[in-house]
């Protein structure tokens, strides 16, 4: 037995880390030669100025110009913001701050974003599942039955991998249910695709509401690793005790601040409009395919769809992988049998994807497969 295996926490020995899009198709760092439609990233990049004048100094704990820029953009006061290394770090901090290891639990509503469970498992927090209903809405009766059983409730709106928004009255009902017993996190990683639906303006009414945001999606900065936690000052103070002393590096603060001011914001809004158009076109195309049984409504930068059989799902997924086009298989998630998720890349990437699928169905085996189902 290796020294690492001998000394590590027991539960880590068999734990499977988050199968991120990059890990699943590790390519030695190179993204060339592949079409990446599996991580809900944006397709284009921006061009940014980085100043190395003060790179010999540690950055501020929370770089002021970044916090001010996000405050202006989000209309949330600076004291209600915490900048983190992506929204993922926000998830981890919330669990580490509010859950006593091997004692407390979190609630998740699958199908949902995988990192809530991974971060909980990593910390030794238990996971209570209250699945979404068949219409991908919150199961308020199921949530009510768990009041008092968990310290943190994770809601995701728009949801990943489903893409739909949760009804605001349901989020409000969940906030009322857990008012005395749990932090309610609303993950708004994709909120730029339906900004009017944010619940950030509810923060002053609900001291236990926490909102997660990121620059990885609509801002096209997934490689930067920059996210924000929005919460009341008492919550921010607690999280600040747990976060690393210098979470945001100087180049990250520079680039993110630039993206959050014009013309960066205008570029983001243009990107969102283009993404919305391409998503509608892709959903219409998917709906017309013989092998597709369901296309889920999406208010985000991806589309989830269901294939008529497992054979068809594997045929499409593997056929795309063979041509270097990577999408995400979501079929192991609760109630998502035979479902695949496509991120909205560029127009040419999506055309290539459609053409590749069409071409694969011209072979006799594929046509037989499609007719059988
Ligand atoms: C719902 C949701 N929350 C959080 C994240 C993590 O975002 P970040 O890149 O800011 O860590 C993702 C990334 O895919 C996501 O889909």
Please tell me about this protein's structure.
This protein has about 375 residues and is of the alpha/beta class. It has two domains: about 5-40 and about 265-370, Aspartate Aminotransferase, domain 1 (Alpha-Beta Complex); about 65-260, 3-Layer(aba) Sandwich (Aspartate Aminotransferase, domain 2), CATH 3.40.640.10. It is built from 14 helices and 13 strands. The protein has helices at about 5, 10-15, 20-25, 65-75, 85-100, 115-125, 140-145, 170-175, 235-240, 250-260, 265-285, 310-320, 345-360, 365-370; strands at about 35, 80-85, 105-110, 125-130, 150-155, 185, 210-215, 225-230, 290-295, 300-305, 325, 330, 340-345. It has a seven-stranded mixed β-sheet with strand order 2-8-7-6-5-3-4, with helices on both faces. Strands 9-10-13-12 form a four-stranded antiparallel β-sheet. The protein has a two-stranded parallel sheet with strand order 1-11. A hairpin with a 6-residue loop joins strand 9 (about 290-295) and strand 10 (about 300-305). Helix 5 packs across helix 6 and helix 5 packs across helix 9. The N and C termini lie far apart (about 50 Å). Pyridoxal-5'-phosphate (PLP) binds near residues 40, 88, 113 and 216. Pyridoxal-5'-phosphate binds near residues 86 and 87.
